[in-house]
Specification:
Blueprint (H helix, E strand, L loop, with lengths): L20 H7 L16 E6 L13 E10 L5 E4 L9 E4 L7 H6 L8 E6 L21 E11 L5 H7 L6 E2 L1 H15 L6 H14 L7 E2 H4 L8
Antiparallel strand pairs: 1-5, 2-3, 2-4, 2-6, 5-6, 7-8
Helix pairs in contact: 4-5
Catalytic activity: [protein]-peptidylproline (omega=180) = [protein]-peptidylproline (omega=0)
Protein name: peptidylprolyl isomerase
EC number: 5.2.1.8
């Protein structure tokens, strides 16, 4: 849900509201791979429960479903509880692409369904010197999250998602293929849209994904989450 504390930024424009995760991923600004892993050492991870069957393990680009509670390390006060929002449903988000604070993106890597973790995140990987007044997080706050992971699924930039659009199997997405996909999504969600919405979204998708401007979204351009090799 928009406005929840652990999310780094609000969702995209209303233009894509109601569409699938796959289409929203195409509309989102591409997530670039970030260099350096030294920051990962700053997140302290304590495994509270590890299932005997630990598969699949989460990785960048996966779609995760989890509950988490957030506490201030300074006094132990709770500032966030996912169970009190969205009728208590666990949160869905794509891992490692900035949909949640960086510390959570790091803390939830290599985690398996059913696993529970307690993680301590320094200010530099949370809300930094500014804090987050709306979420009652003061400046320079170290955060503690208790996380329970329920599901690890293929994300919206997975091989399966790419192949769903790539009807002719040539490992690149043409305007015709994206256009057909848009028509199917519009029909599926049944929302009324201005006739120009189709062309506007199609243009936006290619603007954000066709980096070399050749009129196609290649497997490499599409797979910015580095989920799998296409």
């Amino acid at each position: 849900a928009a406005g929840t504390v652990p999310r780094r930024r609000p969702p995209g424009s209303d233009m894509g509201r109601g569409l699938s995760l796959l289409l929203l991923a195409l509309l989102a600004a591409p997530a670039r791979a970030e260099g350096g892993t030294a920051a990962a050492e700053e997140v302290q991870i304590e495994v509270l429960h590890l299932p005997e069957a630990c598969s699949p393990k989460s990785k960048k680009g996966d779609l995760l479903n989890a509950h988490y509670d957030g506490f201030l390390a300074s006094d132990g006060s709770k500032f966030y509880c996912s169970r009190t929002q969205n009728e208590g449903h666990p949160k869905w988000f794509v891992l490692g692409v900035g949909q949640v604070i960086k510390g959570l993106d790091i803390a939830m890597m290599n985690m398996c369904p059913g696993e529970k973790r307690k993680v301590t995140i320094p200010p530099s990987l949370a809300y930094g010197q500014q804090g987050y007044a709306q979420g009652k997080i003061p400046p320079n706050a170290t955060l503690i999250f208790e996380i329970e992971l329920y599901a690890v699924n293929k994300g919206p930039r997975s091989v399966e998602a790419f192949n769903q659009i790539d009807k002719d199997g040539d490992k690149k997405l043409s305007e015709l293929e994206i256009s057909q996909y848009l028509k199917e999504e519009f029909a599926r969600d049944g929302k009324k849209r201005h006739p120009s919405a189709h062309d506007e979204i199609l243009t936006d998708i290619f603007k954000k994904n066709d980096h070399d401007g050749d009129g196609f979204i290649s497997a490499k351009e599409y797979n910015v989450y580095q989920h799998d090799e296409l």
